[in-house]
Structures are given as structure tokens and as C-alpha cells.
Amino acid sequence: MTDSTIGFIGLGLIGGSIARAIKRRQPQVRIMAYMRTRARLEQAKADGIVDVILEGIGDQLSQCDLIFLCTPVEYNAQYLTAIRPYLKEGALITDVGSTKTSIHEEIARQGLEDRFVGGHPMAGSEKTGYENSSDHLLENAYYIVTPPVGADGSLPFEEQPENVRRILTVARIIGAIPMVLDYREHDRVVAAISHLPHLIASSLVNLVRDSDTAAGTMKRVAAGGFKDITRIASSSPEMWEQICMTNTLPIAEVLERYIASLNQVLDQIRGRDNEGIYKLFETSRDYRNSITERARGPLEPAYEFSVDVVDEVGSISTISVILAAKGISIKNIGINNNREHGEGALKIAFYDQESMEAAWKHLDKYKYEMFRV
Ligand SMILES: NC(=O)c1ccc[n+]([C@@H]2O[C@H](COP(=O)([O-])OP(=O)(O)OC[C@H]3O[C@@H](n4cnc5c(N)ncnc54)[C@H](O)[C@@H]3O)[C@@H](O)[C@H]2O)c1
Ligand SMILES: O=C(O)C(=O)C[C@]1(C(=O)O)C=C[C@@H](O)C=C1
């Protein structure tokens, strides 16, 4: 990597995770950071992640080869004006915002096209802050890179413009999978696979909140189905308000189609159209099952399956003992949080195909019920 000093404006979940991953893989890179909560910056320095704490937006920034904007999307765009006087010759700005058109429009307005390449790591969490960041959060996740003009994802790395290559390089260093995309296309795609799901999760939670009994029975008995589909309803309101306000048209378009599809479901339910409802679940199951859990897919296969167990003390150790007796090593074992297959599903991961198959065969003899995850 040619960029040896990297500045971060905002060092929360995403900024902190990128800084940690860079430090882990390229410890010689000098990291400078600014955020509003001074105590967290001091923590990051004590952790050895940040080398220099920036007191604000000022002269020190002119030491940076690359500047990451990692605050909520509208603030990222506002920071462009503030940091611009301190850009040294050749310095590049990038961001990690969940929407791209608004910041690219601001870049064009300020004539900064030669100084900016956008970015968006496709991983995250409902949790915020440096304290929840990790050096592996973005590993194996797609990292969308949006050039100001002429995005061409079909070009190999060597043929991409130099500024684009600089961001692709950082994405690779942190263990992510870079993908070049036009920023407008980016916003249409994420409206469907990220923004709409967040709106659905939050409106569903609010619907249940408003429909619950005085005794709160719905809240009390809410189980896997509700919890799985609503985890992201706990996300930051400040961040999501800004995401929605900077992607209104693509969100409105997909939301309209979603409402139409819900109306169709309503008609099918009211009309007792069992075939239509069956088809709904069948089609969604097939498509959902075709989505690989890991972005790398076949390059990094997961050797794992789940086992139905009675939820009682000792069930994990019984399985461990059975497998250990056959010399089969377990890479990981734990309760399957997805709970798609019942409360007592244990997920077991193995180091290779052979161990997984041997374990399957052996547990089958003990009449365990197993299924692929
Ligand atoms: N959370 C996710 O799942 C996720 C995933 C990919 C991209 N993103 C994008 O990454 C960016 C950061 O999100 P995050 O999840 O790290 O949020 P976060 O709340 O964990 O971190 C935001 C950081 O910005 C700082 N900040 C906020 N307002 C500021 C301001 N006005 N001036 C200076 N610093 C300020 C906060 O102190 C914090 O350090 C957002 O643009 C978001 O759209 C988020
Ligand atoms: O896993 C989560 O909690 C996320 O919401 C991550 C998620 C998403 O998948 O929608 C959220 C926002 C980002 O811009 C990218 C990823």
C-alpha cells in the first residue's frame, strides 16, 4: 500500500473496524483520527490503533495520504468543505457511507472528482461505536467502490484508474472483497437489500408495540421469527434517518412495489388462496436458500451442519464426547442463533469435508436428527 498515513473522521463501528484491520495487517501505517468523543479516541490510542489523535479539522490533516469519512452520511458530505483546505498534493478522500449519490453530487459541485473515490463495506451491525468495532468485521464482505465517473466493474485491477486502485487495495488489505459499481446503481441496489429491510423491521416492531395487549403478551412471547427479522430495528436512528433522506427516490420506488406485493398477499389471505400462499413461501424459500451465507461462497466452504438436541444440561458435551471418541475434531460448536430449525439446534463446524461427513455418519447411528445449515 502506497498510502502510509491514513486519517479517519469518525471512528465508530465502521471507521474503528477499518482502522483495526489496517493496523492488524499493515502495522507500519500511521493512523490519525478525529471524533467527537475524546475518551474513545484515547481508548483507540491506548489500544495501539490510533497513532495521532486529531484535535479537530486543521493543519494536521495535511499529513494524510488518504482520508476516510466515517460519520453518518450527511455529515460526511458536510466534512468535504471543512477538510478541503488541508488536502496535501495527491491526497485522496474516501467515505464508507451507506448511500453514494448525495456525496458524489457534492463532490461534483465542489469539483473534487480527482480527489475522491466512494466506498461502502457491505457488512455492519445494529450496534454502534468504536467499542463494538473489530478487526474482522469486514472480512469476506463485499466492499463496493464507487468512482466519481466511468465506473467499470469489468476492468481488472490493473486497468482501473489509480485512485480507484488505492481504495481497492485498502479493501483487499482489510480482507474484504472489492467490487466497482456506478454510484447510482449502488443506491438502487442497497435501497432493496438494505434500506427497505430496515424500514420493514422498524415498522413491524412499531406495529407490534402498538398492537400489544396491556400486559405486553406479544413482547413477552416474541420468539425466533420476530427476533430474526427485527434485529436491525435496534440500529441507530440518527444514522438511518440520514440514509433514508439521502436515498428517497430509490427507496420510494422499491417501497411502492413492496406495498403492492403486500396487497397481493392480503388478497390471497382474504380470498383463502392456498395455492398463492404456498407459492409465496416456496419461491422465497428457494431464492433465500440460494443466497450463500459467506460472500466468498465456494472459495471458502463452510463444513458445518446442525443437530436437533434436547435443551438440557450436557447435550453439547454428549455430542463432543461421541465425536472425540472417533477422533473427529470440532472447529466450533454452539447454539444456532438463527433458530430456523427449532430452539435446540446445535451448529457444529468442522475443519474439512472428511471430518464433517464422518461426524454426520456417526451421529446418525445415535439417531440424532441433522440438517445442513
Ligand atoms: N453500521 C453499519 O452497519 C454500516 C455499514 C456500512 C456502512 N455504514 C456507514 O458508515 C458510517 C458510520 O456508521 P457507523 O456504523 O460506524 O456509525 P457509528 O455511530 O458507530 O460511528 C459514527 C462515528 O462518527 C462520529 N460522528 C458522528 N457525528 C459526527 C460529527 N458530526 N462529527 C464528527 N464525528 C461524528 C461518531 O462519534 C462515531 O465515531 C455511516 O455513514 C454509515 O452509513 C454503516
Ligand atoms: O447487519 C446489520 O446490522 C446491517 O444492517 C448491515 C448493513 C445491512 O446489511 O443493511 C447496514 C447498513 C450498511 O450500509 C451495510 C450493511
From TrEMBL:
Pathway: Amino-acid biosynthesis; L-tyrosine biosynthesis; (4-hydroxyphenyl)pyruvate from prephenate (NAD(+) route): step 1/1. InterPro entries: 6-PGluconate_DH-like_C_sf (IPR008927), NAD(P)-bd_dom_sf (IPR036291), PDH_C (IPR046825), PDH_N (IPR046826), Preph/Arog_dehydrog (IPR050812), Prephen_DH (IPR003099). Its EC number is 1.3.1.12. Signal peptide: none annotated. The keyword Amino-acid biosynthesis applies. It catalyses: prephenate + NAD(+) = 3-(4-hydroxyphenyl)pyruvate + CO2 + NADH. Keywords: Amino-acid biosynthesis, Aromatic amino acid biosynthesis, NAD, Oxidoreductase, Tyrosine biosynthesis. One of its GO terms (biological process) is tyrosine biosynthetic process. One of its GO terms (molecular function) is NAD+ binding. The keyword Zinc does not apply. Residues 4-299 form the Prephenate/arogenate dehydrogenase domain. It holds the Pfam family PDH_C. Belongs to the prephenate/arogenate dehydrogenase family. This is Prephenate dehydrogenase. It comes from Enterocloster lavalensis. The lineage of its organism: Bacteria, Bacillati, Bacillota, Clostridia, Lachnospirales.
